[in-house]
Design a protein that fits this description.
One of its GO terms (cellular component) is nucleus. The chain is mainly alpha-helical. It has helices at residues 5-19, 27-36, 49-63, 70-89, 91-94, and strands at 104-105, 108-109. It is 56% helix and 4% strand. The longest helix is centred in the last third of the chain and has 20 residues, at 70-89.
């Protein structure tokens, strides 16, 4: 595994795009996903940090199916912890003040205050 943060973030981004329709959507968001995400649109350009955290909750369960060495898994977990700390520290930048999963506009899921 590369120590490059960029590579790790790229992997998270790719995993998020692939897993979003299956894992971190609530029932009421599935129709919205099908209405908004078109064939050539990356889900990560529409859904934000709220959905990414939902994926992180499921990540340990999903990583159980990945064949990687113990040492690599530990290093990956450490990098993910750093990333989560970064999100917490910068929550005002990445999270909406209020989230309403039924609204999407301007290419991002919008909160009630928008």
């Amino acid at each position: 595994m590369s120590d490059s943060i960029g590579e790790i973030l790229k992997g998270i981004w790719c995993y998020f795009d692939k897993a979003l329709p299956v894992v971190p959507l609530y029932k009421k968001e599935h129709q919205q996903y099908h209405d908004v995400v078109l064939e050539n649109v990356s889900p990560s350009t529409i859904y934000g940090a709220e959905h990414l955290l939902r994926l992180f909750v499921k990540l340990p369960e999903l990583l159980a199916y990945v064949n990687i060495e113990e040492e690599t898994l530990i290093r990956l977990q450490q990098k993910l912890i750093y990333f989560l700390k970064f999100l917490r520290k910068n929550h005002n930048t990445f999270f909406l003040s209020a989230y309403d999963g039924s609204k999407v506009s301007h290419g991002k899921a919008q909160g009630k205050d928008d």
